[in-house]
């Protein structure tokens, strides 16, 4: 297990390093002048020269890359060109708000999705199974932006129960007001993913319930509840855990849309702001943070997979 963990950590470091090269290359190696792209077509030559000097664009590319890369290693992500503030605190503040949405959403997706999938598999062919299956197909098919619009119209405009946009910290508005700003964005994020996970869990659970070791456990007279918890569920969750890591990537993409529509001041909305205003340091730092989150999510999925499946021999070939 230790050797496997070290191997996966090295892979994570390699992926992140490769992404630094890719992100830097996308910004600096594409045709066109970065300073010209930031300031626009009507910028004067003097303004462009000043910005080039400020960003160090006159230095060789390898010098620029090392300055940016070494700065990130030291926790210095540069300064925002638009807000004229250090990028690091801006990213941390926005990431904290996005982490609230993401953590609540992924917990709901895992708990509710797995529970509904197991229920459908255990009650295969019943009315509840058919209703859940129909609902799964429906929520998977409907895109997120549709739910954004529908929820705002229904709960904010018509009923007036929930705020349509914005965010209120707990320290300013209390827990209740803070939570009301999260309900619509969280529902939008989890609706399709819960249907996805529950559908996958149902299929995996049905296959596991028909396996030989489950039939043998039932033949030995093991109680059905114990069969489900100890024998069926751990093995049925293996593909679900893997897909949950992939869904975190989908969740990150969904956060960009949701935060933009609901005017939620998180990392996704900040990335859109950086793109619209050509804030290159802010954009590069945000892209690296998103890459790191997704990479660590896959690492976590691998470790959970290892705990659920002790038959896998890590760090050496199977005998």
Task: Give a written overview of the molecule.
- The protein is an all-alpha fold and 319 residues long.
- It folds into two domains: 65 residues, no CATH class; 217 residues, Orthogonal Bundle (MetI-like fold), CATH 1.10.3720.10.
- The protein is 78% helix and 0% strand.
- It is built from twelve helices and no strands.
- Helix 5 packs antiparallel against helix 6 and helix 10 runs parallel beside helix 11.
- The longest helix is centred in the middle third of the chain and has 40 residues.
Helix/strand layout:
Blueprint: H1 2-28, H2 34-39, H3 45-55, H4 61-73, H5 87-122, H6 127-141, H7 144-158, H8 170-209, H9 212-219, H10 224-261, H11 267-276, H12 280-308
Helix pairs in contact: 1-12, 5-6, 5-8, 5-10, 5-12, 6-8, 7-8, 7-10, 8-10, 9-10, 10-11, 10-12, 11-12
Short description:
This protein is mostly helical.
Q: Determine the CATH topology of the largest domain.
A: MetI-like fold
Distance between the termini: 16 Å
Q: What is the H/E order? A: HHHHHHHHHHHH
Number of helices: 12
Q: How many strand segments? A: 0
Low-confidence stretches: 313-319
CATH class membership of the largest domain: Mainly Alpha
CATH homology-level superfamily of the largest domain: MetI-like
* Helical fraction: over 70%
Derived structural class: mainly alpha
Shape: globular
Q: Can you summarize the main beta sheet?
A: none
- The overall number of domains is 2
CATH architecture of the largest domain: Orthogonal Bundle
Provide the β-strand percentage band: under 5%
Radius of gyration: 24 Å
